[in-house]
Amino acid sequence: MKTILKVDNIEKFYKNKGSLTKAVNHISFEVQEGEYLGIMGASGSGKTTLLNCISTVDHATAGHIYVNGKDVTDMKETALARFRREELGFIFQSFNLLDTLTGRDNIALALAILGEHPKKIDGKINKIAQELGIGEILEKYPYEMSGGQQQRVACARAIVTNPSLILADEPTGALDSRSAGMFLDSLGLLNEERHATILMVTHDAFTASHCKRILFMKDGRIFNELVRGADSRRAFFDKIMQVVSLLGGDKGHAF
Amino acid sequence: MRSKKRISKKVFKELAAKNVKKSAKDYFIYFFTLTFAVCLFYTFNSIKDQFEILGIPDTFNYLAASQGAIAAVSVVSCMIIGFLVSYANRFLMKRRKKEFGVYFTLGMDRRDVGRLLMKETMKIGSAALLSGLLLGIGTSQVLSMITARISGAGLGSYSFIFSFGAAVAAVIFFGLTFAFVHFFNVRELKKMELIDLLYADRKNEEVPESKKRDVLLGILSILLFVSAFLLIFCLSETKFLEALTAGAALAAAGTVLFFISAAGIAADIMKKRKRFYYRKLHIFDVNQLGSRIKTAGISIAVVSILMYLSVSVMGIGMGLGQSAIIKKDKTAPYDISVEYYYFGDSTDDEMNGMSVLEKLEQQGAALPQYLESSADLTMYEQENLTESSLFAICTENTKVRRNFEDPPVLLLGADDYNKVRELLKLEPITLGENEYAFTYNEPDAKDLLSEYAGKQKEPLKIGGKELTLKEGGIYETTLYNSNIFGDIGTLVVPQKTAETGTPYLKVNNGMFKGNANIAYEEATADLNKAKNFIYISQKDINVEIMSDQLTSSYVGIYLGIIFLVTAGAVLALQQLTQSAENEKRYALLSKMGAGEKLMRKSLMTQMKVYFGLPFSLAALNAAFTMAGAYRNIPYLTKGEAFQNIFFAAGLSIVIYAVYFMTTYSGSKRILKL
């Protein structure tokens, strides 16, 4: 097994008129190739900040992040752009498809930016579309699709470049439960069949139950870890709920 | 290792094309404004070729100066358009933050996104350039017909005009403008952080509130307005341009302070009037507008200032132009005037013995052969006879009197004067031994002279004789060609009495013989031989006056329209961006049960205030400024003045209304109302 992601003692502090917020406070963990890792936590626990640091959207205050052995914390602008197009796939809560482009073109753009040979692009898109069951909506524009369909196109866009790591930020946040289920099945498929390494941030226990391992965050620190192992998803979900109730308990959140 | 190839050009091209096509409606106002600017640029810069086709001679480079003025205005307008384009781009870039975020996460770097933007700008720019040029070729035909009319060349001399130079200049200037804009875009792009792009919509704009400061600024702005208008009204008599410029600057400063302070004060007042505040969607409207004007106060102020300048520049420019043209027929009634001024050297003595024409022939000049009829006259000055002493009893003040120190009053012998009248085909006058009369050509001098005639009972002592004013002896005649009305009163006295004075000026007024064009050309060729003499031909004067009119009218209209479309475009773009941001708010209102009709009305109210406020303030400023300016533009009747003002105001309102309607329908489309 190869280590795809190594987070080494990451800190992210915000200074705000004298007060110091430690959004991410000394976090270290590793993700192996083919893993499906979830990061859970309540709002404000620092999970999105952590993801942003890993995805190079944000800069960590201290510490190092290695993706595929490369330290992303000291990369420069052009190297970062190249790193993003070659190593990372993004899935956002609000889909972030370009509404000037059809579903097919949205996926094709990722390949084109990567510099893929134009002749190969259509074949790759058709293959991934078939796997994810989005063949029929490929020629539609984002505003003609439902949220679930958009998110699955976004999912195809993230995976089509064969990135080392797929980062998903609350991907089911804007979806109803049925669409969310279909989307998560797609994501699971990518993990099982294509051995895609996935890192997903969510606050939703049902979504998290699709992962193989879950890190729980609270106040910028890792608070607990759950591994699904041989559990059924139902059993894993119950375990997650136990931790969640523990997490939310002392804050009085009805989670 | 993955492929290191850069993103193919084709993908870029396609993406740019799709972006432009998709947001064509967003870009429409931007495109429309650019097209208009290019069209104006081409149209006004083609006047050089218009002059050539109309065959107007330009001996003294008046037309070249007029072209120069228009070229200078073109540079200014390009700069304004450049600002507009980069402003519009900043707005559009704000709208597209999320999109840029996606590009970055997909692995494009800033250079790639910069290139994409450049492709888009170039697409729109070249389309605007092309359509602007086509439109310009059309409008320049209209303009050259107008030029033909103004110059008196007649529509017969008009033919189709394509100005290659103007077209090339337009391409170069707008190319440069776009290059600059691209440079600013890239700079803007460099400032963007990926995290801000992705979470763009979560950021709120915060405005510090300070009521005390608002009230103080409000008072200061009113003081600035008052001082601006006082300045224009009191000082524009003596220093026309300086007073107008300074006044406009003060009014502009007042406008800025007004918009910074007014929104807060007005919103507070409206919030206190509960019966108004809680009706319909007024809560929403007041707060929306309040925060809008607070955050965009300065740009709204700039819009208002632009509109103010636009209307004033157009109105005043056309007024000056019309004032110039009124002089045309009266200041140069002779084909040519040859002037000789006495300077006190040896030539003076020679001149006393012979006429102007004789002297010219002696010097070998060709002109005398080409004259059919002419009148030779000599004007004299008398010691102690100056305007201030002569008109001391008068209270009537003319503009001409104010502008000069204290010129001597010139004397003209009755015989010489009758030669002039003969040339002008007027009845000769008879003057008794002890009588004198007045001749003038400055229209305003009429009042002065009749006041003088009423009050002056004492006889005038000239050359040892006592003369009384002849009954009804005030004549309007132009004694020699000039580019202005310079004569507020020349004394016509018996020939012998006149000759007792010191000679001041000798003039020969002549009419051409045969082909006037050949005579004119010969006279122009004389310049080297006619030493000591000044030739003033009707043709040159007409060209000068016409180029004056063209310059002030065209510059006024050109600048005015550029200011106006810029103002309209800025407001429209702001409102459209605002509407895009408001989509969620209106959706929420709809969910709360507000009907479509109510929301449409709310949008209309907001837009009316948003467009109306800067317009009203601009109208008020322009009204005061033009009222002040027109008091000091000579020779215009009230009707003519109002005609100009109404034209300027009307044109502004029409163009502004186009922007308003386009924006309203655009906003409705975005908000799906």
From TrEMBL, chain A:
SUPFAM superfamilies the record matches: P-loop containing nucleoside triphosphate hydrolases
InterPro entries: AAA+_ATPase, ABC_transporter-like_ATP-bd, MacB-like_ATP-bd, P-loop_NTPase
Keyword Metal-binding among record annotations: no
Pfam families assigned: ABC_tran (PF00005)
Ranges for domain ABC transporter: 5-244
Recorded GO MF terms: ATP binding
Entry keywords, A to Z: ATP-binding, Nucleotide-binding, Transport
Keyword Iron: no
Family: Belongs to the ABC transporter superfamily.
PANTHER family named among the record's database cross-references: ALPHA-D-RIBOSE 1-METHYLPHOSPHONATE 5-TRIPHOSPHATE SYNTHASE SUBUNIT PHNL (PTHR42798:SF7), LIPOPROTEIN-RELEASING SYSTEM ATP-BINDING PROTEIN LOLD (PTHR42798)
Protein known as: ABC transporter ATP-binding protein
UniProtKB/TrEMBL annotation, chain B:
Subcellular location: Cell membrane
InterPro entries, alphabetized: ABC-4_Integral_Memb_Prot, ABC3_permease_C, ABC_permease_BceB-typ
UniProt main location, coarse: membrane
Keyword Lipid metabolism included in the entry's annotation: no
Residues spanning the membrane: 27-44, 64-88, 124-146, 158-184, 215-236, 248-270, 298-320, 555-576, 609-630, 642-662
Entry's family note: Belongs to the ABC-4 integral membrane protein family.
The protein, known as: FtsX-like permease family protein
Provenance organism: Blautia celeris
Taxonomy of the source species: Bacteria, Bacillati, Bacillota, Clostridia, Lachnospirales
